[in-house]
Sequence to fold (643 residues):
Amino acid sequence: MTNNQDNQYTAKQIQVLEGLEAVRKRPSMYIGNTSSRGLHHLLYEVVDNSIDEAMGGFCKNIEVTIHPDNSVTVSDDGRGIPVDIHEATGQPAVTIVLTKLHAGGKFGGGGYRVAGGLHGVGVSVVNALSERLEVEVSRDSRIFSQKFEKGKPVSDLKKFGKSTQTGTKITFKPDPEIFEDLNFSFDIISHWLREIAFLNAGVKVDLKDEREANKEVSYQYDGGLVEFVKYLNKNKDVLFKTPIYISGKKDDIEVEIALQYNDAYLENILSFANNINTEEGGSHLVGFKAAITRVVNDYARSSIVSNFKKFTLKDEEDNLSGSDVREGLTAVVSVKLMNPQFEGQTKTKLGNSEVRAAVSSIATESLNSFFNENPEITKKILAKSISALQAREAARKARNLIRQKNGLSLSGTLPGKLADCSEKDPHYREIFIVEGDSAGGSAKKGRDRKFQAIMPLRGKILNVEKSRLHKILDNNEIRNIITALGVNIGEDLDIEKLRYYKVIIMTDADVDGAHIKTLLLTFFFRYMKPLIERGNIYVAQPPLYKVEHNKNSYYFFNEQELNAKLKEMESNPKIQRYKGLGEMNPVQLWETTMNPENRILKRIELKDVIEAEEMFTVLMGNKVEPRKEFIYTHSLEVKELDI
Fold:
């Protein structure tokens, strides 16, 4: 045993962090990380306090302003944070809220019946991680103000002026010592605020960006979730015009649901608890799914549909599965409860078991009433579900056939076109999905065989946005991708079986290449979304130009880089514009696009599921007009850039 003083562990090594020091010491424990995601989380926590006021019926207007120095102001017309003296501490309540962890009105003290946020941690964490913060409270006919720096008060709570209004205004600037990037994204914030407005019918939310002239948006939806579902389905052909709306309350749990079917083949269900997007679902989502599956199955056997036999189940033992019933379903499920139990700090899954029964009961009763009163809509839903059942049976047969031929798992035979690598650990393996046999041949010759695998594609894969699963599984190129990756697809996907931790799409830098890239990304988004969520999907960036000058070669990825370099060159260089990957020999392809030391890879990140859903629907869906409008708008943007 060593007596080295450095290895001793005594009371001297125990640190006691006072106040908000712990937050500044380990910020990621409180906001996830210190990248752009963590930066925006600060804003979400401040806005959540305003939304809590709205959920209590005390606030109707919320304003968010991004200032040129990347500070942000959030103001509302709620009750205003209390300013009276807190008996236990002798300090104003607003000071306690902003400087003490786990201090707030959300712990059953009567301040809020339901609330989101970090339950008393949020706004104090924002204060701790801000270079400066100022709070202004209007209440009790007066205006109060206090300033803070890095979580510590730099002024007392001051009283000035009179006010006939109530509300809270908080201005904060994130600390550059904590955050890697201080640039707030207008798009990210506006998408999130739109979602908040949908979930809180009648609340007006304004966003203004002072960094750019006239950049502001305003959201207010009196129709709430019904308008939310209409928005989600705006680029789809729906089976009935007005979404079904469900609301009710049971055991202090408020339930709101809106749903509508479209003619597509995939479901899109969003779930929320106290305005928090529960991306991983939870008990409220389970309760809704169980209810709609049970009700639709009951009606498929009931007398109400006896006059349209083709929409009933023929075999008494047949049952529509949950996926059958949810094909083409767009829904938003929102619950509000007093004591939500979220799994994990990020709150992506609701755990309250009692919520499942409440949602299931309210949804079942409402759906039964609606189906009884609207037999024509019932018929359309049943027709859609039974058609999905038939397609599921066809898909099952297709799966069995594939397994018999070449397998869908690691135990099966890998595709003959796949040039695999020798590395055994998936963490260090990568696969290039390459457009065309010619480029695939160059990639096979130029790669590092130890860790790089090559899968050439022949032509364009099927557009999965317009196809059911059995058709998708019948596509040879898609089957090869599924087999090579080893994870299966959809509900059968097992991400732990992924054979390569980098899945790299490599296509030509032209229109066809962009189309193939979009087709592949649509497939991954619809049927292998966990790979995108975990950061396994990448896009390679091959160069557009090669310039030879004074016996040296240079590669450029856009015209701006090329033109800047040409201005530096004295004599006339030789310029080559690559039309495709196949024009590069194996050495060039390795040097520019595949060598980890030189290449440029773009990782595909899913920052906004709703926006991604809309974009794939516009680009690859059945409706032509939204696609034409998108192409026309963006082609004009390109022309303006060229000018």
